[in-house]
Amino acid sequence: MLPTVYIETTIPSYLTAWPSRDAMRAWHQQITREWWERRRASFRLFTSPLALDEVAVVDATAARERLRVMQKLPLLEINEAVGTLTGHLLKAGGVPPKAATDAAHLAVATVHGMDYLLTWNCRHINNAEILRAVAAICTRQGYAPPMVCTPEELMG
How many structural domains compose the chain? Predict the structure, then answer.
């Protein structure tokens, strides 16, 4: 069986965005496109209604393109266990309160047993200090958190 990957909001954003003039952002966009074209077939991809809601905002034309990519993915349920784990991640200091949506992405991927969570959000999701705390909190709650990584880290 193929490993599972939770696709967080930044992935379709980088995948469908106009090329950036910022060198680092342009590199992230290129790596994301390469991962999508070359590597996604090696995984079973999932997302959540939370991610769909996030990609649907801001520019309508860009939102349509992001949604086009995302709506092909199976949705993971936002259930009571996800809500409870999100609360623990926020209350125990794993994720700052201003990043409640990011805590929810981590909780969705964890509760549903994803192998990986793919993101470019290195502030509140793919952040070594936060992930250390998140792993401890998830373990205390009886869960094994997913490996959180960027497309560059999951290129094989």
Answer: 1
* Structure tokens given for 80: 């009571």
The boundaries of the domain holding residue 102 are 4-154
Compute how many other C-beta atoms are within 10 angstroms of the C-beta atom of residue 155. 12
Q: Is the dihedral of CA 45, 68, 121, 112 positive or negative?
A: negative
Q: What pLDDT, in 10s, does the model give residues 3-41?
A: 999 999 999 999 988 889 999 999 999 999 999 999 999
CATH number of the domain where residue 103 is located: 3.40.50.1010
Residue 154: half-sphere exposure toward Cβ, Cα within 13 Å: 31
pTM over 0.90: yes
Classify residue 7 as exposed, middle or buried by CB count within 10 Å of its CB (0-12, 13-18, 19+). buried
Residues for the chain: how many in total? Answer: 156
SS (H, E, C) 96-156: CHHHHHHHHHHHHHHHCCCCEEECCCCCCCCCHHHHHHHHHHHHHCCCCCCEEECHHHHCC
